[in-house]
Design brief:
GO terms for molecular function: aspartic-type endopeptidase activity; methyltransferase activity. This protein has 242 residues and is mostly helical. 69% of the residues lie in helices and 0% in strands.
């Protein structure tokens, strides 16, 4: 076991958490203002009550709820492995791993219904300042905390401006997620922030071209931007890791 890279543990932990996400994503992938799903869209049977109903993976009649479990497991595990291998055993890593798992869930929901739900984003946004504050308290990285705050406000304001542009295809959910990611990218450095803002468009471009080539979308089709935001942030961290 001594020869096993330490970041394998981070990958396994994120993969296990990712395996729990499909049904959560299925239940939260509803139009704005509607409550979480209470029944199976395949057969109409009410979902299991309590915690089991949020993580079971299948309804009582065996219909799968949400994306295949291997998808979220693989995405979360890969993100965890890449972050841990790139950053090393830094104090902020557990928060970044938790953010990676949340990002997989947000991406699943956004692809399903073009929404980044407030019940997922706002608690994470509210919890970030005190959690990063605890890291700063233990490490003395108060400059990083302040930079994270400034990046959060800057990115959030910039993306809110894009929301207000007519025909921009941005939503307030994108702006909130941008602000959340700005906190963590800002903690890592302004170079990570700049890349995190620029890379989502680079990520989205080939996806759009492929979808156009296979005639799944048209030029005016609005793609969910959340997955590109999240992927761009991950790539920014990997590109700027010291």
């Amino acid at each position: 076991m001594r020869d096993v890279p330490w970041w394998v543990g981070a990958a396994i932990g994120c993969a296990v958490a990712g395996a729990l996400l499909p049904t959560v994503g299925y239940r939260l992938a509803v139009p704005y203002g509607e409550p979480p799903r209470q029944d199976c869209s395949g057969c109409g049977v009410p979902l299991r009550p309590g915690v089991v109903g949020w993580f079971a993976g299948r309804c009582v009649r065996g219909h799968r709820l949400g994306v295949p479990r291997w998808v979220t497991t693989a995405l979360a595990g890969l993100a965890g492995a890449l972050l841990a291998a790139a950053l090393g055993a830094v104090a902020v890593l557990p928060l970044l791993l938790a953010l990676a798992v949340l990002g997989v869930l947000l991406g699943v929901v956004d692809v399903a219904c073009h929404r980044l739900p407030d019940p997922l984003v706002l608690p994470a946004l509210a919890a970030t300042p005190p959690l990063l504050g605890l890291v700063a308290l233990g490490t003395g990285q108060w400059d990083d905390w302040v930079r994270g705050l400034l990046a959060c406000l800057t990115v959030g304001a910039a993306f809110t401006g894009l929301v207000l542009l007519p025909g921009g295809g941005f939503g307030f959910g994108d702006a909130k997620v941008g602000a959340l990611l700005g906190w963590y990218l800002g903690w890592l450095g302004w170079d990570a922030v700049l890349l995190g803002v620029a890379l989502p468009w680079v990520v989205n471009a080939p996806v759009l071209l492929v979808l156009l080539a296979v005639r799944r979308v048209r030029w005016r089709t609005k793609l969910p931007f959340g997955p590109a935001l999240l992927a761009g942030a991950l790539l920014a961290v990997l590109a700027t890791a010291r």
